[in-house]
């Protein structure tokens, strides 16, 4: 059966929100039929979904989103061999923003990955440069399932290792603080 003719049911706790869509088709932006009318402003959609807890200046953000395409970033540290469920909200939110016409910058923290994740014990697991580089490439591939790297608002991947690896301690302390 061709991918475009298969259907999937998206189930939620609210029976009104169940929707049917084609497998392989992008998830719709906005609310499913039968709820309320989706807003053209992606901020309303994110608020409706409960994805905005705090904002420094919501009115300014709403105005900027209403004026046209903005650039935004989402970041992931390669401190493990794969992204995990905790990254899903960021990935789906990045997808929603991109589908609304905004441009994602995906920051993969290669430098941060070299420092390691803190543990409850206070010890960090330090991974080799080769391991972190491999995990960085995996993160890039995994992110590509959620955002597009083509089109007018194509995503861009940046790695903080690219600009921090050249800094000496003296340069960092003198110039950055």
Model description:
By secondary structure, this protein is of the alpha/beta class. The chain has three domains: 35 residues, no CATH class; 30 residues, no CATH class; 109 residues, HUPs (Rossmann fold, 3-Layer(aba) Sandwich). Helices cover 34% and strands 14% of the residues. It contains seven helices and five strands; from the N terminus they run ββααβαβααβαα. The relative contact order is 0.12.
Strand order of the largest sheet: 3-4-5
- Class of secondary structure makeup: alpha/beta
Contiguous uncertain segments of 5+ residues: 1-39
Helix content: 25-40%
Report how far apart the termini are.
Answer: 60 Å
> Which oligomeric form is depicted?
single chain
Strand runs, count: 5
- Give the tally of structural domains: 3
Along the chain, the helix and strand elements come as: EEHHEHEHHEHH
Name given to the CATH architecture of the largest domain: 3-Layer(aba) Sandwich
Major sheet: 3 strands, parallel
Task: Output the CATH topology of the largest domain.
Answer: Rossmann fold
């Amino acid at each position: 059966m061709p991918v475009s003719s298969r259907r999937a049911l998206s189930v939620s706790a609210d029976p009104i929100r169940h929707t049917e869509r084609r497998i392989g088709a992008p998830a719709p932006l906005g609310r499913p039929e039968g709820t309320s009318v989706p807003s053209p402003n992606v901020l309303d959609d994110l608020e409706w979904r409960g994805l905005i807890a705090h904002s420094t200046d919501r009115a300014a953000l709403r105005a900027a989103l209403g004026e046209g395409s903005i650039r935004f970033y989402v970041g992931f540290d390669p401190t493990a061999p794969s992204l995990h469920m905790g990254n899903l909200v960021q990935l789906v939110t990045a997808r929603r923003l991109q589908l609304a016409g905004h441009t994602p910058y995906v920051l993969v923290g290669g430098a941060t990955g070299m420092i390691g994740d803190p543990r409850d014990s206070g010890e960090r697991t330090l991974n080799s440069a080769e391991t972190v580089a491999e995990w960085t490439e995996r993160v890039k591939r995994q992110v590509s399932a959620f955002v597009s790297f083509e089109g007018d608002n194509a995503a861009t991947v940046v790695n903080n290792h690219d600009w921090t690896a050249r800094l000496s301690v003296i340069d960092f302390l003198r110039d950055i603080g």
